[in-house]
Structure formats: C-alpha cells, structure tokens
C-alpha cells in the first residue's frame, strides 16, 4: 500500500511561492468563469454519443491560466482538459481542469470548481480546488491545506457505519464496480451525490468521510491529492496505490478507515 502521507518535497520556500502562484492562476480563471456562470451561453458537446459539455468559460479559463504560466514559468509543462499539452523542460508540470463539473456549471449549481495541480517529477505536490462563486479556495501543499488561508483538517471516523459518503453518479460504476459501490453505500450512514470536486473540498474540511469514483482522468484527480493529503486524509486508487490511469479513486478523511474500506474494493 502506498504511504499516503508522503509527498515529494520541494522545500518550504518553494512550496509557499508556488502555492501563491497557483492562487494567482485561480484568480485568473475566476475572472472568466464568474463572467459566464448563470449567464446565457452556447454549450457544445465534445462527444459523438452521449453528452460531454464544454463552454466558452472552460476554454477561456484554461487559456487564461496557460498564458500566466507560460509568461512566468516558460519551462514548466502544461496539461489541460481543453487544449493540447505543452511538454515540460524540467521537473514541473501543471495539470488543469478549468471547470470540473461543467454539467453543474451549465445548470447554475455551484458545486463545480477550478482544479489546478502542480506535479514535481510526476507526482502532485500542490493542488487548488477553487469555487469562486462561493468564495471558497482550498490549497494543499507539503505545508498543509488551507481554506481561504486558514488551516483545515479532515475529521476522525470510527468506520463505515459512521461515515458520510459521496460519489458523482452511481450509474458510472459498471459491472463489478457497481457491486463494490452498493456494498459501501449499504454500510455507510449517509450518501450525497453530484457534488463534483466540491465533495473532495468538503472532505478535506472535515464534513465528509469517504468518496468513491471511477472513470476519472488525470485532470480530475491530481489537484485533489495534495488538498486531501495536506489536510490529513488519504487518497489512492482502489488497490491502495497512487492514483493511476485506471481512473478509480477512493478518498478517506480518516486514513484509519483504510483497513475496513480497501478490502471491499475488489472487482
């Protein structure tokens, strides 16, 4: 099992400086997203089958973030949901999801957020979950996790029977995955749905205990990792390893729950 409390060190001064820069990126994105939230706009569909929405706010926010990174750290790589990747010329790469939860965004529901992650040698060291409409910004780094500048921690949980659980949509769990989800849902005290990245913010602040997801992409995941770990929580794939390309993710506010939860995540 991965040592979930271990994050690669970039030093306190670098952590502080790069976290402050990540907040500048969130400010730049917020100028775009708030201009379009709950306003009339065209919604495009990225899929030939199904519905995967994208808007001028998604693209504009990513463009604003990219411009600031390229002007300030031209050697840093950039990988975002809406634009082609820019290869890194060193150990740092930014992973961007300008609007995580575009479906919520176009419905006027403020559970979407801007996700910004900085990878050092391939591992996330800084993460931002920004919900500008609610004026809530969660920043995680090796220095810890803050909400609007104030330190936050996850909460203790005695086990599944006392846990508040969340997932975006139970229909995303396919075949054996659905049986796993149903088991956790049955054993948990309460479950909430369709909160997008905001569920992870709530977990880091000590209000949720367990989040289970599948089908996630790197830009959905990487910013969440430093936020949750910096607050004292645990986030891994379903096997207890670093989150990877299979897109399966489990987040625990209390790492002590892993002994009960991880053995149930068998497909």
How far apart lie the N and C ends?
17 Å
Q: Which sequence of SSEs, written as H and E, runs from N to C?
A: HEEHEEHEEEEEEHEHEHHEEH
CATH class of the largest domain: Alpha Beta
Q: Output the CATH homologous superfamily of the largest domain.
A: Fructose-1,6-Bisphosphatase, subunit A, domain 1
Specify the helix fraction band.
25-40%
CATH architecture label name of the largest domain: 2-Layer Sandwich
Kindly report the CATH topology of the largest domain.
Fructose-1,6-Bisphosphatase, Chain A, domain 1
The biggest beta sheet is recorded as: 7 strands, mixed
Shape: globular
What's the number of domains?
Answer: 2
Number of strands: 14
Return Rg in Å.
Answer: 18 Å
The main sheet orders its strands as 3-4-5-6-7-8-9
This entry's quaternary arrangement is: single chain
Tell me the strand percentage band.
Answer: 25-35%
Q: Low-confidence parts lasting 5 or more residues at pLDDT below 50? A: none
pLDDT averaged over residues: 94
| Class of secondary structure makeup | alpha+beta
Description of the structure:
This protein is of the alpha+beta class and 267 residues long. The protein folds into 2 domains: 12-151, Fructose-1,6-Bisphosphatase, Chain A, domain 1; 160-264, 3-Layer(aba) Sandwich (D-Maltodextrin-Binding Protein, domain 2), CATH 3.40.190.80. The chain is built from 8 helices and 14 strands. The longest helix is centred in the first third of the chain and has 25 residues, at 12-36. It is globular. Belongs to the inositol monophosphatase superfamily. Its EC number is 3.1.3.15. Pfam families: Inositol_P. One of its GO terms (biological process) is L-histidine biosynthetic process.
